[in-house]
Write a sequence for this structure.
């Protein structure tokens, strides 16, 4: 039997190269799989663990979440656009679509060829298999979030070699809707929950005793409340200073002038924010900091107000009142893509926000709290063992036959 330094017999040989890819304009996906890389390193195995980033900004976030430095056994590798044609296309199209995110694969095929396994947080990486033929590369999905949106259960997901699922809800829907074989799924919990809690955010209204509402609209135009109702929501809080508001939209909301979605072809424009919202003493506006992605705001808020963001489930780690904006008149009852709307009152108009927020608070203990606990338990399979450790063991078990 082969000996491995500080590893079990299931763990990879020293020549094994395990990559973690963070290929995005923003930092919101880092927290979802970085804890797994850290857990692999803590196991002290002889595998080479490479964190591949595509910007210095993402690299800074990796180091921040890792506590300032990466442990022994992990190297940080920045990928870039190396061909003139890629740089030209990215420069021409990058203001409107994430061209660099796709071109990065073509320009770094040698790196991806060198890996035995690649852990990713989104599906664009499947281009390595579908277009560039990297059939030997084991691709493992550790998804960025555990929400209910249909895009998370599209049939392309079945093309991954394996999926690390947060809980039974994810597994059930992947099997039923994406055609994923049960053997392709391991339920490992939610590694993001393993990260150290961030320090409380600095808020201008801290300590004033008023309830803090978190307004967290999603970026996708055909689902988000922002494009139709967002400014009216902010105006409501301007006119109702008995509430504090954290306006913390999806971190991609204001990254580009236009927002283009791929799951349902749609383009819309988030526009500019009136300075009056930033100046208001009861409104905290954050559209681009890492606090949007590390649970800073979901931890501190008293009430959640949103539409389809998966952050609702991170908020429900501690059940609290919620309300939802149905800005597109969705017939949502019984629709699995809107299961989280069971967690609080749903309103179709910001003119009804006052009663909706009051109902969310008044009905929470007797009605919504139990529903929230059920939704959370179905979404996340959490045990005494950290989710990142469970994920690391699953990856090593998958790679045992490559020793």
């Amino acid at each position: 039997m082969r000996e491995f330094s500080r590893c079990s017999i299931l763990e990879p040989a020293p020549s094994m190269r395990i990559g973690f890819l963070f290929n995005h304009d923003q930092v919101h996906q880092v927290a979802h799989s970085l804890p797994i890389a850290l857990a692999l390193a803590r196991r002290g195995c002889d595998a080479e663990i490479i964190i591949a980033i595509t910007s210095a900004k993402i690299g800074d976030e990796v180091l921040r979440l890792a506590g300032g430095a990466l442990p022994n056994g992990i190297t940080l590798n920045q990928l870039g656009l190396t061909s003139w044609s890629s740089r030209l296309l990215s420069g021409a199209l990058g203001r409107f679509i994430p061209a660099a995110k796709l071109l990065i694969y073509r320009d770094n095929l040698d790196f991806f060829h060198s890996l035995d396994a690649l852990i990713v947080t989104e599906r664009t990486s499947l281009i390595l298999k579908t277009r560039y033929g990297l059939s030997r590369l084991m691709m493992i999905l550790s998804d960025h979030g555990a929400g209910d949106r249909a895009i998370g259960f599209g049939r392309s997901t079945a093309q991954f070699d394996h999926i690390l699922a947060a809980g039974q809800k994810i597994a059930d829907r992947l099997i039923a809707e994406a055609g994923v074989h049960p053997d392709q799924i391991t339920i490992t919990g939610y590694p993001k929950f393993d990260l150290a809690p961030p320090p409380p955010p600095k808020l201008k209204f801290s300590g004033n005793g008023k309830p803090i509402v978190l307004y967290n609209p999603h970026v996708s135009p055909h689902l988000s409340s922002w494009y139709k109702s967002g400014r009216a929501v902010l105006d409501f809080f301007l006119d109702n200073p008995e509430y504090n508001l954290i306006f913390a939209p999806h971190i991609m909301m204001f990254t580009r002038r236009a927002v283009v979605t791929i799951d349902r072809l749609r383009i819309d424009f988030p526009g500019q924010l009136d300075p009056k919202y930033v100046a208001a003493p009861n409104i905290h506006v954050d559209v681009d900091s890492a606090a949007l992605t590390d649970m800073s705001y979901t931890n501190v808020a008293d009430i959640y107000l949103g539409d389809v963001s998966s952050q609702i489930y991170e908020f429900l780690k501690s059940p609290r009142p919620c309300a939802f904006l149905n800005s597109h008149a969705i017939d949502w009852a019984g629709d699995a893509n809107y299961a989280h709307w069971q967690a609080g009152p749903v309103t179709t108009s910001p003119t009804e926000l006052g009663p909706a927020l009051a109902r969310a608070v008044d009905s929470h203990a007797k009605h919504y709290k139990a529903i929230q606990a059920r939704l959370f338990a179905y979404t996340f399979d959490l045990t005494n063992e950290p989710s990142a450790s469970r994920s690391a063991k699953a990856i090593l078990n998958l790679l045992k036959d490559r020793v």
About this structure: DSSP finds 14 helices and 15 strands in the chain. Residues 238 and 280 are 7 Å apart (CA to CA). The first strand starts at residue 17 and ends at 22.
